[in-house]
Design goal:
With 273 residues, the protein is α/β, with parallel strands linked by helices. The protein contains 12 helices and 8 strands. The protein has an 8-stranded mixed beta sheet with strand order 3-4-2-5-1-6-7-8, with helices on both faces. Helix 1 (22-35) packs across helix 11 and helix 6 runs antiparallel to helix 12 (261-272).
Length: 273
């Protein structure tokens, strides 16, 4: 396959609090995109609870921190976990970005350039909250996708995350997905609450991307560390993932003020230092 003209769309999946279903969302979206023939790279940036590999039943033996120390090549840390899906396990490597020297940065970026044209999408599963590593992962991507749930603290913490990204890092556009809701009415209600408070206090744009319903089959699949889009493609949650992926595809290759994978790693290194 000729990768020379491929453009990588970078998307972070993030939240103000834990337990909102980010990793399940990332893995199912990746699987759906891959099923459509897209090449997807996942960066597991949830350093405290990194478990993307568990969903796919793989055990990485190389992590990005080994790449940053010059012990391994970046391509050695890229694992094929399903057809058309690769994974870079985060380990403690994101923190290591704060300590690498000029030559290590150049080595990393040189290796990234070799991956740039291989992928249509790069999905970053961030840790929850507003820690520095979460912030600079989010500021390096083209699209920041914030996951909300009906839990009131999810909304307040999501607002806090958006506020910090806006005020400290000048981010002003966010995509919103509502998870664990009964129906779209409840999703839109949650979205409107967040939108109203953001409109009142911040100058940001929120783009509603859809919702994932409370689906017992999804809960069972997640508990068994399986992907609902693979084992039950006709379930309500699988249909919801399909709808969200449709929106991602529609905007996947539009011109963006931020570049692709190379820009992501350049910005991540710049912000970390």
């Amino acid at each position: 396959m000729n990768y020379s003209n491929k453009f990588t769309k970078t998307i972070s999946v993030t939240s103000g609090k834990g337990g909102v279903g980010k990793t399940s969302f990332v893995c199912n979206v990746a699987a759906y995109l891959a099923g459509q023939g897209h090449h997807v790279l996942i960066l597991d940036g949830d350093l405290g609870m990194a478990n993307v590999d568990v969903f796919f039943g793989v055990r990485p033996h190389v992590y990005i921190d080994q790449v940053l120390r010059g012990e391994k090549l970046l391509e050695e840390a890229v694992f094929s976990i399903e057809p058309n899906i690769d994974l870079i396990p985060g380990g403690s490597g994101i923190y290591e970005l704060q300590n690498i020297n000029y030559f290590q940065k150049k080595l990393l970026l040189d290796q990234v350039s070799q991956l740039e044209n291989k992928y249509d999408y790069m999905l970053i599963d961030t840790a929850p909250g507003i820690a520095d590593n979460v912030l600079y992962l989010n500021t390096a991507v083209q699209e920041i996708m914030v996951i909300l749930t009906p839990d009131p603290s999810s909304l307040t913490d999501a607002y806090a995350l958006i506020k910090v990204l806006h005020e400290r890092h000048k981010e002003n556009k966010f995509s919103i997905v509502c998870n664990l809701v009964h129906d779209e009415y409840e999703a839109l209600k949650i979205y409107k609450r967040l939108s109203d408070v953001c409109s009142k206090f911040l100058c940001v744009s929120l783009d509603y991307q859809g919702y994932i319903p409370l689906d017992q089959k999804l809960r069972e699949a997640t508990k068994q560390q399986q992907l609902i889009v693979d084992i039950n493609p006709r379930s309500p949650s699988s249909i919801a993932f399909r709808n969200i992926v449709g929106k991602i595809n529609n905007h996947g290759h539009l011109a963006q003020p931020k570049g692709g994978m190379q820009f992501f790693f350049e910005q991540m290194i710049k912000t970390a230092c």
